[in-house]
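User: Study the shape:
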Amino acid sequence: MNNPCACFLWRNPCRNMLPQWAACDSLISPQVKYFRGMLMSLFQFTARRLASQAYCGLKAASSKKHKFCVEMARPSSNMADFREVFAKAKHIVIITGAGVSAESGVPTFRGAGGFWRKWQAQELATPEAFARNPSRVWEFYHYRREVMLSKHPNPAHIAIAECEKRLSKQGRSVVVITQNIDELHRKAGTKHLLEIHGSLFKTRCTKCGNISANYKSPICPALAGKGAPDPDTEDAAIPVEELPQCEEDGCNGLLRPHVVWFGETLDPDILTAVEKELDICDLCLVVGTSSVVYPAAMFAPQVSARGVPVAEFNMEATPATDRFRFHFSGPCGTTLPPALARHETEITS
């Protein structure tokens, strides 16, 4: 579409300025901050997409593609048909969410019962919560890090990693775009990985901005034995100077988890890499995601809209299911391995 405003937003150095109401953070509830951050990321991603498509927008839309979008049938669950599409694909994008890690026993802190002590994640995973009580927030993330050190990739993670390794020898590519911060894809062996929400095992200095991997257990001595999730547990109230500190020469700034918190926008460099992969893929898989968290919820429908096959692997249907060519219901660890197994037409070395 021809949208000069989108081009302005993409090129204008002031494009990241927040509306005036964003300055009133102290008056905004955690829920509103969550939706504000979601909308800002959605706006950011949409503006970039519109700008990148501005030239194409000068041309008439393809009637063939338009017909496909309008007349697309309900998604198929025929694995043989999917396997034929899979065998021909040269560049596969796999978008994963919390569902792919749930089978590894990873807590989600969502919905009823999704509490750490007496708080839900959206009350702790915010810049404001960290500013108010960095000790409590670090206890929460220390607990999550320690839990994840005991978890292992499940058959879905392994199937994705093995597929990537196998297809790379055939001149084909697989890239994983994940919303998860648990690094189970990395532990399974996935190499081409875009972690759009960051990682539990990376830190960012609040003073110098340095980002680094950190797998220490505990991450600092003061957090040893802390972070118990029991609602009766008292806060450790660790002094700031005893919390994780930056190790860059002469810095000693307070570290924070390198994850995207509620109210924050996604890394623009990561979004650029995601856009590139979505533009060139010829098959997209959506695995274990609810398709309700933006901007990630836009990724697969956008691919489907240009006629590229999309296959959804999830326990149940999502708001986006009817926009996809395939849907396979059930645990990802059960449905995904046979879908990504070696096809009989593949050339073996």
